[in-house]
Automatic annotation (TrEMBL), chains A, B:
Organism: Pseudonocardia broussonetiae
Highest taxon above the source species: Bacteria
Protein name in the entry: Pyridoxamine 5'-phosphate oxidase family protein
SUPFAM superfamilies on file: FMN-binding split barrel
PANTHER family (UniProt xref): 5-NITROIMIDAZOLE ANTIBIOTICS RESISTANCE PROTEIN, NIMA-FAMILY-RELATED PROTEIN-RELATED (PTHR34071), FLAVIN-NUCLEOTIDE-BINDING PROTEIN (PTHR34071:SF2)
Amino acid sequence: MTTLSPTPRSTVRRLPHRARTDRSELHAVLDAGMVCHLGLVMDGAPVVLPTGYGRIDDVLYLHGSTGAASLRAAARNEPVCVTVTHVDGVVYARSVFHHSMNYRSAVVHGVPRLVTDDAERLAGLRAIVENMSPGSWEHARGPNRKELAATAVLALDLTEASLKVRTGPPLDDDEDVADDVPTGRWSGVLPVRTVFGEPVPCPLLPASTPVAGHVGDRRD
Amino acid sequence: MTTLSPTPRSTVRRLPHRARTDRSELHAVLDAGMVCHLGLVMDGAPVVLPTGYGRIDDVLYLHGSTGAASLRAAARNEPVCVTVTHVDGVVYARSVFHHSMNYRSAVVHGVPRLVTDDAERLAGLRAIVENMSPGSWEHARGPNRKELAATAVLALDLTEASLKVRTGPPLDDDEDVADDVPTGRWSGVLPVRTVFGEPVPCPLLPASTPVAGHVGDRRD
């Protein structure tokens, strides 16, 4: 089986037909997310925390306060796992056993590198801000020296990654499909998506300030 | 500081004013989710995978194929971390440094227990199915002996858990707020929510089958 990367832990073993091996698909799934789940090992136990991220080519950037225990642990040359998941639908099957979700999920393994080069730190922070709020890097005030000093930036190569995707209708047993008419059971997919609502201005903002285009244009 | 649970790792240290200590709020955040991120340690490295879950009182149930390496690892009396995150808004601040997300995030630590009692296994599976697709347990065909044998059910106590919530407008520096008029920068929150679309019937379903109420009523 072809994989996105050659290591055993980034090779999808469970339901391998759901594995995708196109690197541009991996990028698309990462770029479509706003929050990843960062996994670390702290005192021998796993810790999973939500956090923002950004991507430049085949590098994922993470950031956090230099005071955060999780960031300090991740910067210690120890392995992390970053997972980005989109839920696309609830799959209603004829049997509860075959109930499922449609989803896209990217899993990245690796040892992050603490970014020390000033230009790369800025580029990484920009990628993180722009992934969450495209247009903000130009619109908002940029980071000053003090803010930069308080922020740690980590880089994680996308070398060791896997992508799993489920799409389409339920996959039921033939006997259950044959029972459709007598049982009258419904089966299919309920699509799920994430939408943006009406922007809520900061209460301190002068009332005359128009909603910036890069914000207002995201409304669904 | 009061905590939901008394251990150091379930005490929120970073931005502790965002910590919530009401157990019913923890339950509400868990119940509002469909997918958790399950963290395990495998071969010394963290692995984070999305999976369904359900809750009964102060127990979280997880399930999976008895053939899945992650479930086997989680059933080995080893610690896991389960995180459920809702993104509620993108917080646009005057500075990129204060950009943030509004979110609710529950983090549960513990060593899961492999459920062996038949009644608890069924109750756990029911909780998982009903959390993802309320009403399906009654509507769809229940699990048969073979399906039950292929499914492992794990129970994780909610004893050691933390809940972190951010709400409200951006928190900017006074100097940046004072610059509002000259800069014309917009600041505020873009709400984010998850919605359900129009149900898509299984292509094999007879066209006359009406959409079941427990599915159709979820549409936004």
